[in-house]
Amino acid sequence: MSEKRASNRWVVVVIFFFFMLLHQTDKLMIGSMQVPISEEFGMSNTQWGWINSGALIVATILYPVWGYLYDRYARAKLLALASFIWGATTWMNGIVRSFPAFLATRASTGIDDSSYPGLYTLVADYFGPNLRGKIYGVLQLAQPLGYLLGMILALMIAPMIGGWRSIFYITGSLGLVVAVLIYFFVKDMPRGKAEPEFEQMPEMATFKFSWKEVREIFKKKTMWFIFLQGFAGVFPWNVITYFFFAYLEKERGYDPDAILFTMGPVILILAAGYFVGGAVGDFLFKRTRKGRILISSVGVLLGAIFLVLAVTTPIDAPNQFFIFMCLTAIFMPLSSANVIATVYDVTVPEVRSTAQATEYFIENAGAAFAPILTGIIADATSLQTAILIIPSVTWGLCFLFYLGALFTIDKDHADLRAQMAERAKAM
Questions:
Q1: Looking only at Cα atoms, what is the longest distance across the chain?
Q2: Count of domains forming the chain
Q3: 264: nearest Cα among 145, 387, 140, 142
Q4: CA separation for the pair 199, 421 (Å, rounded)
Q5: Cβ 7 vs Cβ 174: under 8 Å
Q6: CB-CB contact of 344 with 214 (8 Å)
């Protein structure tokens, strides 16, 4: 690898990290502001669920569109466009003054939420299979750190500078700045350049989008298990993201300081879990092609167990609650980077954005309704009941789906490597 390319790829990682950090801050901080926003617009839990499901539904619909565009056109320029859309829609969300307008503008923020497949596939063309888990783990550190930053902005900064609208103006403006950085400093790479069979080749053939290869995605049994776990696996994340702060405040009696000092360390542990999951997945992948699936299955199983133990902890035992939440945070993110890397371990470079977008589409097709379902259960019973039922059931299903993938990953991975070797030989 040339010194210039090696240097540039780390510039790309840094820019993408800040894109994800600030974008996730903008996306996730609304959960910390449920109480003031709900009070301003007079929303019930069910209406609050619709506010968050609206953006998820829009993102779900647009995942196939973004995936197709990324596989056909320059990914860097499309990512710059996505960042611009993020900034513009967040500004609109801060300006409106009625519940219907807030619902509509919040839904519009989902347009850019479905833009991540292009980012991950571009990174896959800078880094080979044995490094991807760690790199995705580093990038995904931005998600919990963005959650933590959003929590700080919502709970500490917003009251000092005029409320939640001011925070939307800040994060929206940062989206416009990041769009400029991506446009000028992120360069596209030939699709498949970092595959082992092509990495040392001075010239690369251009692999173009093909509907034939898109159809091949659905013939790989591993992808079906990935799709199934994706459908179930995002339910818990959306439940926790959009309702956990209200649960702590309303049902466990935490004030803003207690929320911050409880969830701050938990989120930092969660952040570390993304990198640890990716690094351990890479380590095991070098020894067995089942490695990424093994670490993913352990993560969802133990994450579910410790979350149940946390939520069922008595209110008068905050230290025990904190310990169980920290243990939950260790295991929750272990599968994330490994799922992305697994998609690229079995699909050809020219349709990877489409494959990833399809996986996200299936994820969100179910999970988009998780906030609504949570709101309905919470209004009928309690937030504790909703948080207890939905994650434990869906993570249990994910564990079963990962067990299925253990029996298919070796063949699907070997088929891809054979296909790449044939292409390299033909050049």
A1: 68
A2: 1
A3: 145
A4: 12
A5: no
A6: no
Tell me, what CATH number does 96's domain have? 1.20.1250.20
Q: Is-contact 332 426, C-beta < 8 A? A: no
Distance CA 50, CA 375 (A): 9
DSSP string across 19-50: HHHHHHHHHHGGGGGHHHHHHHHT--HHHHHH
* Nearest-angstrom CA–CA distance, 42 and 261: 28
109 with 82: CB under 8 angstroms?
no
CB contact set of 398 (below 8 Å; sequence gap of 6+): 229, 232, 233, 297, 300, 335
Sequence-ordered alpha helix ranges (H) in 186-253: 211-217, 221-250
Nearest to 117 by CA among 357, 351, 358: 357
Tell me how far apart the alpha carbons of residues 361 and 231 are, in angstroms, rounded to a whole number.
9
**Closest C-alpha among 292, 325, 321, 326 to residue 412:** 292
Answer yes or no: pTM beyond 0.85: no
Structure tokens at 95: 């300006």
Q: How far is C-alpha 405 from the chain's CA centre?
A: 21
Q: Which domain holds residue 265?
A: 3-426
Count Cβ neighbours within 10 Å for each residue of 291-314 and write b for 16 or more, e otherwise. bbbbbbbbbbbbbbbbbbbbbebe
In this predicted model, what pLDDT tens digit does every residue of 298-327 receive, in sequence order?
999 999 999 999 999 999 999 999 999 999
The DSSP secondary structure of 402-423, one letter per residue, reads HHHHTTTHHHHHHHHHHHHHHH
Question: Cα–Cα distance between 117 and 277 in angstroms, integer?
Answer: 20
- Tell which residue, 253, 333, 324, 269, has the closest CA to residue 298: 333
| 131-180 tens-digit pLDDT | 999 999 999 988 888 888 988 888 889 888 888 899 999 999 999 999 99
Would you tell me the crossing angle of helices 256-285 and 142-152 to the nearest 10 degrees? 170
- 27 to each of 56, 59, 150, 168, 328, how far by Cα in Å? 11, 12, 9, 10, 22
Q: What are phi and psi of 219, to 5 degrees?
A: -90, -10
